[in-house]
Structure to design on (582 residues):
């Protein structure tokens, strides 16, 4: 089944593609990539689109929603949605899902796996955690790419997105990460369940 | 009159294309998907009507073998067929051409219909007697196109705009002589100068009004000719000194010149206007308003002209007034570029309030875009 994506940015796209392929689907068109407010604004319309076309996987960083608990996200943002529209909260931020592959991250950064947090979904600022880990990396090129240089206001280093997309596409172990990130595990289950949906979209007379 | 349909076979990177055309057309697709080549099909008809088939193929486009689609079989003909509607008539023009042993262009077939009635069909008996006749189209010959002169004139009225600020500023180093059709604005200032002063000043006044929003310091805009007979544009800019500064086009910013050229092009001529990426050099807030601005200028005409615009701009396509059927989405594939059809799902998304920028532009994103970053990491 072809699954379209509605995501916040490039890194989220890379993750969505991996998950879609892993659950036996084909990645389709990538919508959004203009941050969380765009997704919130256009959810309803993309839900309509999913009723007539490919199912859509929408990923939202829970951190960005300012809600108090993840199940609130679909309930409050899009209560009456099609079963072809998967609105999943990434707890708390995409970097949590990546850090959840502790071995992979440790290998990427050249650090001892014991340094990588054991409960990535409990982190309040997963991106900062990842960048702080990168600061300790013995690999200079990687450090320079991921960590913003002193005096620069950017949240991430100049090559951060490129490095992380590379990681997600080639190294990230989803199986390993699922064990430590329950929201990722649930997302994979919902994606796998798409196969049980009728293969033909609902088209009214 | 406007084009209402185009069909291409073996034209550049289209082995087959069949597209209905609205009064406004927005062409989207990844780089090298053939947006400019599609625009060039309309320019080609103009070139044939103005200067003849041989010049349009051999001089302007490197000959039939360069025009023919790479995905086409080696000796197949190139076909362009258009439908145009206006003044209560529907016209169809079909031209199929190839090359002979000497690599010269020859007409394989040329057919004209008006309201479904065939006015011309070639090759005819005369062509069989004298095959040299097939090196020319009837379209390019005044003696042969009398019955469909209106259509020939319509093709001649097509104009193409891709103004390059560097060329406007320094036309002579771009080309010592005037250029045919002048797509890049080499003679932009000359054309502007040659417009009757009343019309010119009225247009410049309106353009100034729009430009002032983008460049608030600009207070006046006028054309003048210098002592050596070279036309110029002069702008007055307000600043902190008591007297305004005067600057001519060589000091205008790229954005100022581009916007000026776009707006002037909307005023100039009456036939279909082909615009190549009008968003270049402009601030997104201005780009977002271009479709409405073009419509406002167009509304002043008795017969609003057709605009065919190629674009990559999310801002331009985010205008909620752009309908799904006004957008042509080109998709390159192994057998040349094809038109990606509208899906029922896209229409549902439009009805739910999304725009072409939300729904259609993402489909024009390059495949495997993620690989671009990976290649260098």
């Amino acid at each position: 089944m072809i699954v379209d994506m509605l995501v916040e940015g490039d890194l989220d796209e890379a993750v969505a593609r991996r998950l879609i392929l892993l659950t036996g689907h084909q990645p389709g068109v990538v919508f959004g990539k203009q941050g969380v407010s765009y997704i919130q604004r256009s959810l309803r319309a993309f839900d309509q689109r999913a009723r007539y076309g490919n199912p859509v996987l929408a990923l939202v960083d829970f951190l960005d929603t300012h809600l108090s608990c993840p199940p609130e996200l679909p309930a409050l943002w899009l209560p009456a949605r099609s079963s072809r529209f998967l609105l999943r909260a990434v707890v708390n931020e995409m970097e949590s899902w990546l850090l959840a592959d502790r071995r992979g991250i440790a290998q990427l950064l050249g650090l001892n796996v014991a340094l990588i947090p054991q409960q990535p979904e409990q982190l309040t600022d997963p991106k900062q955690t990842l960048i702080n880990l990168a600061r300790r990396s013995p690999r200079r090129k990687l450090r320079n790419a991921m960590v913003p240089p002193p005096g620069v206001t950017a949240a991430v280093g100049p090559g951060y997105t490129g490095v992380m997309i590379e990681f997600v596409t080639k190294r990230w172990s989803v199986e390993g990460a699922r064990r430590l990130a329950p929201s990722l595990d649930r997302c994979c289950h919902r994606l796998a369940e798409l196969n049980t949906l009728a293969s033909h979209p609902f088209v009214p007379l | 009159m406007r084009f209402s349909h185009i069909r291409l076979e073996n034209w550049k990177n289209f082995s087959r294309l069949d597209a209905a055309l609205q009064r406004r057309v927005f062409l989207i697709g990844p780089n090298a998907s053939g947006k400019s080549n599609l625009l060039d099909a309309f320019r080609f008809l103009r070139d044939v009507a103005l200067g003849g088939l041989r010049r349009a193929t051999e001089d302007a486009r490197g000959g039939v073998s360069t025009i023919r689609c790479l995905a086409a079989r080696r000796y197949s003909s190139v076909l362009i067929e258009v439908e145009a509607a206006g003044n209560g008539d529907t016209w169809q023009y079909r031209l199929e051409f190839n090359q002979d042993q000497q690599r010269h262009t020859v007409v394989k077939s040329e057919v004209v219909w008006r309201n479904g009635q065939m006015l011309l069909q070639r090759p005819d008996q005369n062509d069989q007697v004298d095959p040299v006749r097939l090196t020319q189209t009837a379209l390019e010959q005044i003696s042969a196109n009398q019955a469909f002169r209106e259509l020939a004139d319509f093709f001649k009225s097509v104009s193409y705009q891709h103004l390059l600020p560097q060329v406007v500023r320094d036309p002579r180093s771009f080309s010592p002589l005037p250029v045919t059709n002048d797509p890049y604005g080499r003679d932009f200032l000359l054309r502007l100068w040659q417009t009757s002063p009343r019309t010119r000043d009225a247009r410049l006044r309106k353009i100034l009004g729009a430009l002032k929003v983008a460049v608030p310091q600009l207070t006046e805009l006028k054309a003048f000719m210098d002592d050596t007979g070279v036309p110029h544009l002069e702008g007055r800019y307000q600043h902190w000194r008591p007297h305004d500064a005067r600057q001519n086009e060589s000091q205008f910013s790229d954005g100022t010149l581009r916007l000026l050229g776009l707006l002037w092009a909307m005023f100039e001529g009456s036939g279909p206007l082909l615009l190549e990426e009008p968003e270049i050099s402009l601030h997104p807030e201005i780009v977002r308003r271009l479709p409405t601005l073009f419509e406002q200028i167009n509304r002043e005409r008795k017969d609003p002209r057709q605009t065919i615009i190629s674009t990559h701009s999310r801002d331009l396509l985010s205008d909620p007034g752009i309908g799904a059927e006004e957008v042509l989405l080109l998709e390159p594939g192994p057998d040349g570029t094809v038109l990606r059809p509208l899906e029922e799902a896209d229409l549902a998304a439009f009805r739910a309030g999304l725009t072409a920028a939300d729904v259609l532009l993402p489909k024009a994103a390059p495949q495997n875009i993620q690989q671009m970053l990976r290649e260098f990491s």
In short: The mean pLDDT of chain B is 92. The two ends of chain B are 53 Å apart (CA to CA).
